[in-house]
Fold this sequence. Notes:
A: alpha/beta, 12 helices, 14 strands, B: alpha/beta, five-stranded parallel beta sheet, two-stranded antiparallel sheet
Amino acid sequence: MAQMTYMEAIRDGMRVEMKRDPGVYIAGEDVAQFGGCFGVTAGLYDEFGPERVMNTPISEAVIVGHAVGAAAAGLRPIAEIMFVDFMGCCMDELGNQAAKMKYMFGGKAKVPMVVRTPCGAGMGAAAQHSQSLESWFTHIPGIKTIMPSTPADAKGLMIAAIRDDNPVVYIEHKQLLGLAGEVPEGEYVVPLGKADIKREGADVTIVAWSWMLQKSLAAAEQLAKEGINAEILDPRTLVPLDKEAILKSVAKTGRLVIVHEEVKTSGYGGEIAAIVTEEGFDYLDAPIKRVTAPDTPIPFSPVLEQAYIPNEEKIIKAVKQLF
Amino acid sequence: MAENKEKLLEMYTTMVRIRTFEQKAIDLFAAGKFPGFVHSYLGEEAIAAGVCSNLRKDDYICSTHRGHGHLIAKGGNLQLMMAELFGKATGYCKGKGGSMHIADVDLGILGANGIVGAGMPIATGAAFACKYRKSDSVAIAFFGDGASDRATFHESLNLASIWKLPVVFICENNGWAISNAQTSHQNITDISDRATAYGIPGVSVDGNDVVAIAEAADAAIERARKGDGPTLVECKTWRHRGHFEGDPAIYKDPKDQEEWLADNKDAIARMEKKLVGLKYAGQDYLDKIKAEVREEVEAAVQFAEQSPDPEPAEVLTDVYTA
């Protein structure tokens, strides 16, 4: 085990795979000497050289689109899109090309590519640099969508994403980049589609991912002091989703709160709530609650932004409403 | 190239194969044999035939919604193509793609494409893979005059230029972006002028002269194979049909239509005249080629008609690679 930050863990995952597989390369805006907008690829240019860590122009469509062609031709690209908010500039390449190529071709294509992109509010970056948009991707069959919440998961899921033969959107949270933790060394793989119980509890299940997982853990500590023992389930990957793990936890606790930073309407929490209603209704002793951002763009003012972001207080309040 | 009898006859045969297949597809669609869209390549045969005559099996192409011609010219199997148009289990895509998504990855065909202008980034990426692996394979992006207005055109040519990628951008300027004449959607005459903006060579050729196309493509492909980067080749041609089958193309001037379809403009009629003039073939030999191709296409139709539909459960397979 090594102590490293979430950002270092993402980088370590990429490094491990680039050493192991010469077909893995990185392309994106400012990813080379500059090390990426948030520094995630720092040092990889020096280590792997200009043929494998490549700056692109500000051209999101061809960053993702070229990755589709390179992947179909046998490479394993890691394409970086500087903010998840910019995915609108390459949604055709992801949603109509990468996602559908295998199916449209009758199964006779493989598109092993990773699109890495940071999400999340909390840094005063306003409406076009702060969003959480995971449901844009989970809505499109053919894509896998993963959102690590800890340094160890960040590394293990990165390695799994690169090795996966499908297009994977790997969403890293800006507020987690500096989070430190224990990370296994070497080829540490966290399988896609396997949830993780980050805190065991018997009274209520809280499903949360990315930054909200950390906020839910903090909320759970508060709740414990008040006698409510929350189980915190981190799906880690939204597609594929480990719904058995969610149902099993709800069967144990009888209560479910879903926390995400996405806006409420059409957010992925609605999907999880629907699954539990369809397949685990009898387990429920109380209505399912969602703690989410409101249905608004993200404001700039720190006061407004804090009002926007789901927090421990809102999580605790939602949990208490179930008892 | 004009002296290369075999190559000229091969290109002629490819053009005849495309035209015969397309005419048959039009008739079958009109007869209600299969649903969806047919975007006919009639009139543009010389471009696919000329360009692909310079390609190897390990070269890549990215095609368009008007893609049957490219697939045939790159060596696509007519039976599997026709079965796909019919949506049959034996089709190239097991009936999951249809006309706009036929692909044969083993032949380097990375698909027709239902999105105008979407093939250019993919071809750019395939070319990147060729360069990354240090092979001398190349990628071709086919697209139309309408697609040359898309952001993907700009982003792809720019990236291919700065990364010096072995990709050739073949613009099939057929005069029409759906119902919009070229003059109404861009303020230039030669789309190849746009190459200047990317610091790459751009040439315009007669898109109904298969030899001129083959020569221009050959120069661009050789340049790409040597590592000198991309080229934009504009082939000026004419879409014989509407945008899709069923489009009556009322926006076309009948006089223009008549001129372009006349024997002195049509690519196949011109090639026949050339072959006979050079004494590379007599009319009887050319007629024999046509008859053989007709049989080949009829066999493809028979194969398609006799093939089974996919099992309904197939809807759920092939979404992800395990």
